[in-house]
Amino acid sequence: MKRCNVCEKGNMEQVDDITLEIEGYVFITKGERCTICREEFPFEQETAKIILIARKLGIWPEPLKLYRHLSKSGSGLVFRIPNDLEKQLKLDEKTEIAISKLGNKIIIEPLS
Ligand SMILES: [Zn+2]
User: Fold this and answer.
1) What separation in Å is there between the alpha carbon of 55 and the centre of ligand 1?
2) 64-110 pLDDT, tens per residue?
3) C-alpha distances in Å from residue 47, one per residue of 18, 68, 100
4) Is 88 within the bounds of a domain?
5) What CATH number is given to the structural domain containing 22?
6) pTM
């Protein structure tokens, strides 16, 4: 049996009734629970499934603003598109974009 690494006394037992609450929705998932401190660890692949479902339901909180640094490449500055935006907007290296300036904001608009 696996030892709990939170209290270091209990054993981790496999359970299938871990509850995760996201925006008022309750998900039941599989994972491990410590027999002493009751700390719960949902299995990673189970958590990933829930995130997917939550996204489909539109309840996964999406960041409204992302903070990123620009990086230097050659003589220019490079802006990296965050991964989740890349996936959401289905961007790839062939995506054509339009860049416009609005006041002190930069708007990046995928065209395809
Ligand atoms: Zn424990």
Assistant:
1) 31
2) 566 777 888 888 988 888 787 788 889 999 999 999 998 988 888 99
3) 11, 26, 38
4) yes
5) 3.10.20.860
6) 0.50
